[in-house]
Amino acid sequence: MDLDYLRAHPETIPRLVEHQRIRITPLGGAKGGRVERWTLDDGTSLFAKVTEAPNDALPAEGRSLRRLAEAGAARVPEVLTAVPEMLVTAWVDRTGPSAAGAEEFGRRLAALHAAGEPTFGAETDGVLATLPLPNTPEPDWPTFYVKHRCGPLLRRARDGGALTAAQASTVDDALARLADAAGPPEPPARLHGDLWSGNVLPGRVGDVEGWWLIDPASYGGHRETDLAMLALFGLPFLDTVLAAYDETSPLAAGWRERVGLHQLFPLLVHCVLFGASYASRTVDAAKSF
Fold first, then answer.
1. CATH 3.30.230.10 is right for the domain spanning 3-91
2. Which single residue of 39, 178, 182, 250 could bond 23 by disulfide (Cβ 3.0 to 4.6 Å)?
3. Catalytic residues
4. CA 70 to chain CA centroid, nearest Å
5. Phi-psi label, residue 164: left if phi above 0, alpha if psi -120 to 50, beta otherwise
6. What is the CATH number of domain 99-287?
7. Mind listing the pLDDT tens digit for each residue in 106-155?
8. At a CB cut-off of 8 Å and minimum separation 6, what does 261 contact?
9. d(CA 41, CA 153)
C-alpha cells in the first residue's frame, strides 16, 4: 500500500486504519479527537485528524483546503480524504521561516485572493474550531461581515458573559458605523478564513518547499481580513509578507487603519471560545475605527 493506492481508493482509508494497516504515531489530543502522523509502507508520511464525534467539521475543512488548492496559487497540502470521522492530508515537514519564503508567500497569498469568489459568502456553511460559520451570500462585504460574522459572535459573547453589556454596546456601535469605515468596495476574495500565524507552516512536502496553508475556513470575503489575522498573534517576517503582497496586488489606501476593523471577527471568536480575557482587545479593536 502506498500513496498512489490511497489516492485511487480514498474510501478504503478508514478500514485500513481500523485493521492497523497504517502505522500511527500520536501527536496529541484535542477535545473529542486527536491528531496523528501516519506512515505508509513506502515510508510516506501523512497528517490525520480523527474525531470521536463525527460531524461536518472535518469535511468542511477538507472542502476549504481543496477550494484553496483549486486556485493554483498558495501552497496547500493535498487532501486524501475528508469524511466525518477523519481528515487526512499530505505531511508538511517543518523548516525554519526565512525572508525569501516570506516574500514568496506574500505573492502567492495575493494570487490566492485574486482568484476570487462569485459572492461574499459560500455555497455551504463552514466551521471554525467548534463554531458554526454561516456563509449565506450577501451582495456586499459590510453586510456579510456584520450579519454573518461579527453580529452573531457578538451576541454569543455577550450572552455568555465574555463581554459586559457596556463592552458589547461599544462593539455594537462599531458595527453600526462599519460600512462607512470599510474603505472602497472590493470584489470577493478567496480567503483562507482563519489565517492566524499557526495556520501558516514553513516547510516541505516531498520536494516542494514553501509556506503552506493549513486548517482553513474558506469563503468569499475581504482580503484585508486575512491580512489582519496574520498580524493578530504575530507572523515571522510579516513586513516582508505584506510588502510582497502589496507589490503583487496593491492594497487600498488606508488599509493599515482598518486592521482593527478586520480583527473584530477573530477577536470575537476568541471571546466566545476563551472568555473575557479577550474582551479588552476586542473593545480596543472596536474603538480603532
1. no
2. 39
3. 194
4. 16
5. beta
6. 3.90.1200.10
7. 999 999 999 999 999 999 999 898 899 999 999 999 999 999 999 999 99
8. 174, 178, 181, 182, 228, 285, 288, 289
9. 45
